[in-house]
Structures are given as structure tokens and as C-alpha cells.
Amino acid sequence: MVRHRADYLYVAPAILVMGLVIAYPVWFTFYLSVFSTPPNLALEDKIFVGLDNYGRILGADSVREASLNTLVWTVASTGFAFVLGFGAALALNRPFRGRGLLRGTLLVPYVISAVAAAYVWRWLLHSDLGVISALAMASGLRSTPFNFLDNTDTVLASLIMVNVWKEFPFVMIMMLAGLQTVPDQLLRAAQVDGAGPWQRFWHITVPHLGNVSLVTILLLLAANFNGFTIPWVMTGGGPAGASEIWITQIYQLAFGRIRFGLASAYSVILFAVMMTMGYFYVRALVGKDRPS
Amino acid sequence: MRRGFWPVAGWVYLGLLAVFSLLPMAWMLITSIKTQFAAIQFPPEWIPSHPTLDAYAELLSPSREIGRVFLRYLLNSLWVSTATTVLGVIVAVPAAYAFSRFRFPGRNLLFYAVLLRNMFPAVVFLMPLFIMMRWLGLVNTQFSLILTYLTFGLPLSIWLLKGFFDNIPIQLEQAARIDGASRFQAFLLVVMPLSSPGIIATAIYSFIQAWNEYVYALTFLNDDAKLTLPVGLQHFFTEYATNWPGLMAASFIMSVPVVAMFLVLQKYFVRALTDGAVKS
Predict the structure, then answer these.
(1) Closest chain B C-alpha to A153 CA, distance in angstroms
(2) Which residue has the higher pLDDT, B245 or A24?
(3) Are A142 and A202 in contact (CB under 8 A)?
(4) Measured between alpha carbons, how far is A87 from A83 in angstroms, rounded to an integer?
(5) Chain A window 146-205: which residues touch B at a Cβ cutoff of 8 Å?
(6) Which residue segments constitute the domains of chain B, with CATH numbers given?
(7) Is A56 helix (H, G, I), strand (E, B) or coil?
(8) Interchain CB contact of B105 with A (< 8 Å)
(9) Per residue in B143-181, pLDDT tens?
């Protein structure tokens, strides 16, 4: 095809805007991370401190506690959302009346704004008036309301449950799309040869879903690792730091305490972890282009 | 084997999941039609004995304090989301067309931009963007949000639109060119009309993203009068701490348009969300 200079005119606006708002901030975060910044927004009297900020972040007890929470939050949210969503995809992957309606119903949590969802769940899990407690009491499981969110033992699990509620539909549609790539003839041939549903599932469906599953899981891990709205609106990291994760700590450090240098170093560390995940993500995506 | 174990298990599972999905929405709606007094009864009334639309009436009446604030947020959200969407389409359509039709160095950048966008959600960019917006004098303006949403939406918008353009046979354009149309005319008069469903779906997708966005709005705006709905809800929550019907009604009004748009265009969105991952 002939190459025209003018072709670039079509892409230029997009590249320009993206360069300004994506490339520059990445560089700037690295830059700020080696400075000690005064707690104001002008950033004028900053002092070069080398890797000091990194040392302080990695050495802080509060960061260590939040790291465990972050790991649990990220892995558990991803795992439960995947299992729940994959199950839904399998159950939906056959024609029946009302299938589209059901799929639409199950997609609602995914579409609704995270803030609205966080407030509704805060109300559902309310320590004195929560409808979840009321349901448990009505069915005789408990005799008093249960305090989900203001309780260091259950707060993280509660947030994970809300997050799973929000995310499982995403898994469902990804896996449904994946299931449609499983060749029908193969499944029917196996059935003719006497393979039961369980065998067909293990030996035909599962091997075909490898890449979709991997991509879905990596996207979920990244999204959960960066998940902010649900923990921030529902608990703000509390009580006593029991639901504090890296992202909420970074936000608090940057915009609560206005310590941009420290928060930048923390961001770079988060960046490094993300990049590692990103590497596997790209490998997973590129992997399926290769003839196998 | 029509009625074996697995189909029944599937039904039970889907039923439970549907209850889990809809319970919060149902309770949102039920709470929003209670009086404030009824809302804080425990155990709660499962079905309100005196249903009322007072909470909605209050939110939507400009003569009431709470209504004035809410309507302001609603208008702000509409303005920011609409501006983001319109600008997004203007920038993304030509770019997507170029990525679909032309071969040029750097073409693969788009693919990586989409990946990057997926890997780095909002919060990581917050600090440097905030500082940048300060320098540009844009902090506490809605333009800062529009610019940010536009950028973070672009890679995916272009990616989606490219998919739609790819499906339009190039022969149609060639025919137009032979008939004397310029390349731009062919694009405007042949490609654009054919891809309008795709453009609409992409536009609505970016509208929903902007409508729901929270963390940038929380950080960039500090003037009460400029807030968008997601951040505005917080204001209601603290100022009217016990007004659960009001908060639920506000959440409901905020959710309805988005859910409705999504459900109507479900098929496009499902395709949009899964395309990159399932086929390459």
C-alpha cells in the first residue's frame, strides 16, 4: 500500500493527547521519587535524597501490614471472581429461553458505578441496620446484628465479597466468549465416542480456554491490585488499618498528608510489580498468535 | 439427556447468582421509597408499608436545598461525560480509521497503548497528573477531568472503532474513489454511515466510563459547586448522615441511565470487552 505523509494527520491528535497525559506522568513519578518534598503543593523546596524514600517505604511497618492485605485482597478477589464467573459462563453456555435476560441481569453489578455500589453495600452491611444481618436473623442464623465493616476480623473479607460481586460478570462474559471458540464438532464427536459431560469438559473445553483464562486472570489481578473505589468509599482503610492496601496508602500519603516524594517512591514500587504482571500479560496475549 | 444433574445444577447456580447480583439494587430501590423514619427501623420492613416518592421529589426539586445541590451535580456529570464523549469520538474516529486502513511505522503502538491502559488503572497517574494540572492552571476545573477521561478512554475507543472499520470492505471505498470522491469524502460518505452502530456503541461506552469515574473527580475538584455525581454522593453521605432514602434515591437515579444504556447495547459491549482477549 502506498504510504502518505498525510496519514499521520489522522493519528496525530490521538498520539499528542496520549503523550501528554501518559508518558509525561510516568517520567515525573520516577523523578519525584528521589526527592524529599515539603508538605505543600508548590513542590518548590524539594531536596534530593537519592533512594531514601524507597528505604523508608520498604522499611515501614504500616506498609508491611498493608502488603499482606494487598496480597489477600488481590488474590482472593481474583480467585473467587474467576470461579463464580466461570461457573456462570458454563451454566449460560447453552441455548434456553430467557438466556439474554439472565445474562443482562448478571451484568448489572459490573455496569453500575463503583461508588454507588460501595454505598449500597455499606448500607447492606450496616452494623446496626444492615439488611444482611436482618436476613441472617430472620432465618435464625443469628440473634443480634453482625458488625461486618467496623470489625478488624471481617472487614477485609467483606470488601473482597463486594469486589467479587462487582467483578464476576466480567469473568462471565470473557469466559462465555472463550467458550464460543470451543469447536462444537469436537464436543459432539467426543459424545459419540462415549465421553461423559465431565470428561468432555476436562479434555476438550478446559484446554481450549487456557489463554482466555490467563488473560482474564491477569486483567483481574491488575484491576484488583489497583482497586481503589470500593475500599476507599466503604472503609477508607479502617478500622485500625485492617483494610488498608497499597493503593489506599499511596492516596492517603499523597493527598492526605501531601508527601508527594514518598508517595511517588511507593508508586514506583507498585509500578514495578505491575510491570512484572504486564510482562506476563503481553506474553500470554502474544503467545496465542504463535502457531502451536 | 435433557434433564440430567448438570442442567438442574446450572439453574440453581444461576438463580442464586441472580439473587446475589440483584439484592443490592433491590434494596437500594426499596430503601429509596421509604420515609427516613421507616428506613432506620430494625428489623426492616421488607416491603414498605407506606411507600413514598418523597426522596426523589426532594432530589429533583430546585427549590429545596438538597435538590439544588443534587441537580447541580447531575448537570456537572452530564456536561463532563458529554464533552468527553464528543471530543473522544472526534479524535478517535480518524485515528481508528488510519489504524484500520493505512500501513505506517508505529502502527503497533496502538496495541501496546491498549495493553498499558488495561494494566495501569487510574491511581498510579494521579499524582503527576495533579501536579501537571496545577501547572496548567486546570486544577478545580472540569476541563481537567474531560482531558483525563478523554486520554484514558482513547486507546480502547480507537481499538473498538478499528474493529468496526476493519469489517467494512475496502472495495466500497475504492468504488467511491473511482467515482471521483476524494479519500476524505469516501471516508465521510461511505465508511462513517456504515460504521455508525460501532461509533454509537463506542461513544456510549466512553460516556459510561466518564459518568462513573470517581478517583480523578475526587482529587482534581475541590469546589463543591463543581463536583460530579460520584463524588457528590459522598457529600450527601456526610452532610445528611442518616438520610438513607435520599442517598439510595440519588444512587438509583445515577445508576438507571447507565444500566439502561448498557442493557440495550449489551451485544456491542460484550463484543467490545472480549474482542482483544479472544481473537487477535
Answers:
(1) 23
(2) B245
(3) no
(4) 6
(5) 165, 168-170, 173-174, 176-178, 180-181, 197
(6) 55-278 (1.10.3720.10)
(7) helix
(8) no
(9) 999 998 998 888 888 888 888 888 888 888 889 989 988
CA–CA dist B19, B97 (Å, integer): 43
Residue B158 to residue A88, Cβ atoms within 8 A: no
Q: Please report residues of A whose CB lies closer than 8 A to that of B4.
A: 197
Q: Which helix (H) or strand (E) holds A258?
A: none
> Which tens digits make up the pLDDT trace of A162-196?
999 999 999 999 999 889 888 888 888 988 888 88
Coil, strand or helix: which one is A36?
strand
**Identity of the residue in B152, B254, B278 whose CB atom sits nearest the CB atom of A212:** B278
- Residue A72, H or E segment: helix A61-92
Quote the DSSP letter at residue A182: S
- In A232-251, the residues whose Cβ lies within 8 Å of chain B are 232-233, 247, 250-251
C-alpha cell at A166: 462487582
Q: How far is CA A153 from the centre of its chain?
A: 22
b (16+ CB within 10 A) / e for B5-37 = eeeeebeeebeebbebbebbbebbebbbbbeee
**Residue type, position B158, single letter:** I
Nearest CB to B254: which of A104, A113, A216? Answer: A113
Q: Are B216 and B126 in contact (CB under 8 A)?
A: yes
DSSP 8-state class, residue B225: G
In the three-class reduction of DSSP (H, G, I as helix; E, B as strand; rest coil), residue B164 is classed as helix
B129 CA to centre of own chain: 21
Smallest CA–CA distance from A84 into chain B, residue: B17
pLDDT tens track for A7-36: 677 777 777 766 776 778 888 889 999 998
Single pTM value for the model: 0.89
Question: Is B48 in the A-facing interface, judged by CB distances under 8 Å?
Answer: no
State residue B125's pLDDT score: 82
B40 touches chain A (CB under 8 A): yes
Residues 66-85 of B with CB under 8 A from A: none
Cell triple for B73:
451535580
Q: What is the CATH number of domain A45-287?
A: 1.10.3720.10
Distances from the Cα of A61 to the Cαs of A237, A251, B41, in angstroms?
15, 17, 42
